[in-house]
Amino acid sequence: MNPAENLRSEAVAVPSAAYRARLLAMLERVCANCRAEPDPVATVLEHLRRFWHPWLRQALTALDAQERAQASETARQVLERLDAG
After folding, report:
1. Full residue range of the structural domain in which residue 50 is found
2. Which superkingdom does the taxonomy of this entry point to (predicted)?
3. What is the pLDDT along the chain (85 residues), one digit of tens a residue?
4. Number of structural domains, the chain?
5. Residue 11 CB-density burial (10 A; 0-12 exposed, 13-18 middle, 19+ buried)
6. Is the pTM of this model over 0.85?
7. Cα 15 to Cα 51: distance, rounded to the nearest angstrom
8. Contact between 62 and 15 (Cβ < 8 Å)
9. d(C-alpha 42, C-alpha 3), whole Å
10. Count of CB atoms within 10 A of residue 53's CB?
């Protein structure tokens, strides 16, 4: 199995804590890069829609309350919008 398939299978099933931590770190980098935008949450959501595979976005919704509490305010707002669909 190639590494990309392994990541996909993790994301589709139950992502491990380490995988969720990597996803959150990636989300935080996107949020940091978009913080100067007029609407950073909308900009991050658009970035995720355009450049992240759906199973990566779905895996973000698997973050538990403790992981979400560690996220920045922008990242938490993005996660809430992803949860809402």
Report:
1. 3-84
2. Bacteria
3. 454 555 555 545 678 899 999 999 999 999 999 999 999 999 999 999 999 999 999 999 999 999 999 999 999 999 999 999 8
4. 1
5. buried
6. no
7. 20
8. yes
9. 31
10. 13
